[in-house]
Design goal:
The chain is globular, with a radius of gyration of 15 Å. Strands 3-2-1-4-5-6 form a six-stranded parallel β-sheet, with helices on both faces. The chain is α/β, with parallel strands linked by helices and 179 residues long. The C terminus is likely disordered. Helix 1 packs across helix 2. Strand 2, helix 3 and strand 3 form a beta-alpha-beta unit.
């Protein structure tokens, strides 16, 4: 029984690693000094609970590759996020881990947006206005598979999908999509 649950944990870790590796690969194999907007840090929507949140591993991997991560979450406090990093013995360079007061602030000038918590409000954002203020090519990675990917592509974003979603007719790795 314990071996089964360890396999579940290992598979979850593999999915987070694969998702983050896909992000880095899509951004031309490096995120060094690139602003990455992370929407959602909580383990699940409607809570400020960060215990065992997938955002922890994703943000850590991005920062280790040199990204400047700007997080917006409606309920999570930076102090709680830092406590969770510390609990897992992960060091955080505060110049690379910034909590934003709004999604607009997090996305302004970003190279990519990553959705990591399925907050309902994230579905209603004006992603066209985010896109207009992002670095180009602009990428969007939906780790919760909750956004309309065709709509994101139609506004010009290179829309990558989470690891659990069937590919659409276009994906972030197809040549020509981000030209």
């Amino acid at each position: 029984c314990a071996a089964y649950w360890q396999q579940v944990v290992d598979m979850n870790d593999h999915q987070k690693t694969a998702f983050t590796s896909k992000i880095i690969q899509s951004l031309f194999n490096t995120v060094t000094k690139k602003k990455i907007a992370v929407l959602g840090f909580a383990f699940k929507k409607d809570t400020g609970d960060v215990r065992e949140t997938p955002a922890l591993m994703v943000c850590d991997m991005l920062m280790k590759d040199g990204a400047i991560v700007h997080v917006y979450d409606p309920k999570v406090l930076i102090e709680d996020a830092l406590t969770e990093f510390k609990y897992h013995d992960l060091e955080v360079n505060m110049s690379q881990f910034i909590f934003s007061k709004s999604p607009e602030e997090a996305c302004d000038g970003a190279h990519a947006i990553i959705v990591l918590t399925e907050w309902d409000e994230f579905k209603s954002y004006d992603y066209k206005s985010f896109y207009d203020k992002m670095m180009k090519p602009a990428f969007l990675f939906d780790g919760r598979n909750m956004l309309d990917h065709e709509a994101m592509v139609n506004i010009g974003a290179c829309a990558g999908q989470g690891t659990n979603q069937r590919p659409t007719s276009r994906s972030a790795t197809q040549p020509g999509l981000c030209e």
